[in-house]
Amino acid sequence: MKKIKNEAELVKKAIVIGEKYAINRGYKGFSATNAAKDKIESLYRLLVNDKLIQPLPVVQENQVNMKHKLALWIAKQLPEGHALLK
Predict the structure, then answer these.
(1) From CA 55, how far away is CA 60, in angstroms rounded?
(2) pLDDT for 30-53, tens place per residue?
(3) Distance from first CA to last CA of the chain, Å, rounded?
(4) At 38, is the secondary structure helix, strand, or coil?
(5) Which of 66, 2, 70 shows the shortest CA–CA distance to 78?
(6) Full-model pTM
(7) Which domains does the chain have, with CATH numbers?
(8) Cα 55 to Cα 53: distance, rounded to the nearest angstrom
(9) In 1-86, alpha helices (H)
């Protein structure tokens, strides 16, 4: 797995955008007390379910790999020249 530049910031952006996507899909949203790891796993599973990202093999399903997948997903959604892609 190749490290992405600005991966931590991309994951934060993916959580924000992913939560908006989840709400549009009918999910009630996350509460302020939900941990980031729970949000990451929920968004990862939603995006896999909607076939927007490829699922990880079961043995590789962990927080680090899920974060990486979310960072890749949001990097493809951002417009060319976005500050996080530089």
Answers:
(1) 10
(2) 888 889 999 999 999 999 999 999
(3) 19
(4) helix
(5) 70
(6) 0.90
(7) 7-77 (1.20.120.1930)
(8) 6
(9) 7-24, 36-49, 63-77
Q: Helix crossing, 63-77 with 36-49: angle to 10°?
A: 60
Q: Name residues whose C-beta falls within 8 Å of residue 36's C-beta, 6 or more positions apart in sequence.
A: 15
Tallying the residues shown for the chain, one arrives at 86
CB atoms within 10 A of CB 76: 10
Side chain identity, residue 2: K
85: amino acid identity, one letter: L
Which residue carries 């959604």 as its tokens? 77
Indicate the burial class of 58 (C-beta count within 10 angstroms; 0-12, 13-18, 19 or more): exposed
Q: Which residue type sits at 83? A: A
Spatial distance between the Cα atoms of 19 and 4, rounded to a whole number of angstroms: 22
